[in-house]
Amino acid sequence: MRFKYGMLAPLIAVFVAVVGFPLLYALYLSFTDYKLTDRGAPDIVGIANYASTFTNASFWEAFGVTALYVVVAVGLELVIGLAIALSLQKQKWARDVTRSMLLAPMFITPIAVGLTFRFLLNDQIGAIPELLRGIGINYDFFGPGRALFTLAFIDVWQWTPFMVLLLLAGLESIPKQPLEAARVDGGGPWYIFRRITLPLLAPVLVVAILLRALDALKVFEYVYATTRGGPGTETQTIQYFTYQTGIQFFRLGEASSMAFVVLAVVLTVIVVAFRRLERNRSA
Amino acid sequence: MATVTFTNVSKSYGQTQIVDDLNLVLPDGSLTVLVGPSGCGKSTSLRMLAGLEPITSGDIAIGDRVVTGLEPKDRDVAMVFQNYALYPHLSVRENIAFPLRATKTPRTEALKRADSVADSLGLSHLLGRKPKDLSGGQQQRVAIGRAIIRQPSVFLFDEPLSNLDAKLRVETRTELLQIQRRLGITSLYVTHDQEEAMTLSDRMVVMREGRIAQQGTPLEVYSAPANTFVAAFVGSPKMNLIDGVIERGTFVSETGVRFELQTDQEDGAVTLGVRPDDLLVEAPGAISAPATATVGLIELLGPRAIVSLSASGLTLTSVVEASNLSGMAESATVGIRVRPGAWHLFDRESGERLNVRES
């Protein structure tokens, strides 16, 4: 064997063991009727699992819930993150301290964040509803029509710093001269932001949105720690739904097929987005 | 159209003084060139006029309007940057139209005027392209187009030619000069290239360490440099500067080389300045001068040659007509003398000019 392949071998071995095998095994399971409680070998059922996934209204409802969650969370993170990044860029003193402090939420494990907010926002014992009642506002954060937005808010709390980090790096890599030229050319701050800063930041924005959207799509911990999908199925996200099907109801074969459907959809989105990005770059 | 006035303008970053009490008037419609080595404060002065750099103290006025503290957009200036500073995501047409669009000119009118400006600069065939698809020269023309579309009160040029190759630089220089003359807009031009400064300027301002070392017409500065710094900075090849003393009208260098200047300068320590063109070389066999030198390198430039000479430990440079090079070879001994009247005396201590010379 050639030396270069020898050098690659350990990585490939690890990759096959921890990614390749589980992936292929899940693919295999998705074509079987395997249940966690089964003793014997599972039976191959062909595309039956996929057929039932595609026709499962709850699955698509969970898909919709997740999509709404991603749009709200990432949208807010983008707007707030950009505003913070823009002001951090102007900051003159204590830059490093502020920046590292702002990143703090990112370093907490999501399940802990979920639990923390579960108590902070709890209608009976939570500190925040209590404070709100103090100023005459009665708001149940996990009530119907609100729970999903509360979850999105938790995501915003934890992940806006990530957006800030990416956008700040993007802003600081924009060449200074076009911005100076625009000031001399008579542009006001808002005009320059719209016509120069945003377009020059676009590649970073796309990557930031994509990274955050993919991550938000995986939301599980917040749901598990707070609402468990409720009230009703309002906050039943796709990951939580898959988890329930596979782990709680033991239908691992069906859950695997759901995972692959999600994978296919996400991959399509990524490929389309990157194609776009490449085309814009070469245009 | 406006006269630009710098009054006691200073700029410092902490303890570092970048520009020190600058007083400067740019006459209406003139082209003034700020020239000096890097770090002399010339670019900072220009950026202060543009409003891109706040002023520590003093005032800048454009016409009757004091613009100190105004935003760049409120100063009615246009600027051409060293690295062009085009908007990378906009087409050539949109780049040129930008100053009009930014000041709320309707889109169709802005684009129409951009087209006619592009036409006058020979850019019509490139209108749809993005800056990265243009050569350096084309990018600079777009930058010029963007500057002239708005008819500002003042043009600012920050080393606009330094990223171009030598040939293009000379062409663009001529073109810039023609545009400036045609529009008659007061202009401030910053460069580190003294040749560019000499050829372009109505007024030339030589800066050193944040202060004006000398200002005047290029001819004034060239023919009567105010001090040894300007003498060495302006002119190519560089002026020979020789430390020595005056003894009864004759200059004697520290190493004993004698030049008969027939000056009435009183005896004492001086620095003698002689332009290479004014250091005359006598071919071997025809030496009548009291001073001799050994020929080092001869660099032929075509009609003329730069000859390096060494005379008793001094290294001198002379420019010799190619037709007079006969008999001159490396390590030949030649006579050297100074062209009568064509010399400059500077105080050895202060470097300030001693002799007044009418040009």
From TrEMBL, chain A:
Domain ABC transmembrane type-1 residue range list: 63-271
Regions that span the bilayer: 7-28, 67-88, 100-121, 148-171, 192-214, 255-274
Cleavable signal peptide: none
Domain of life of the source: Bacteria
Keywords assigned: Cell membrane, Membrane, Transmembrane, Transmembrane helix, Transport
A cellular component annotation (GO) from this entry: plasma membrane
Name by which UniProt lists this protein: Sugar ABC transporter permease
Automatic annotation (TrEMBL), chain B:
GO BP of this protein: carbohydrate transport
Keywords: ATP-binding, Nucleotide-binding, Transport
Coiled-coil boundaries: none
SMART domains (alphabetical): AAA (SM00382)
One Pfam match: OB_MalK
Top-level taxon in the UniProt lineage: Bacteria
GO CC aspect terms: ATP-binding cassette (ABC) transporter complex, substrate-binding subunit-containing
Domain ABC transporter: 4-234
Gene Ontology MF term list: ABC-type transporter activity; ATP binding; ATP hydrolysis activity
Protein name: Sugar ABC transporter ATP-binding protein
Taxonomic source organism: Amnibacterium flavum
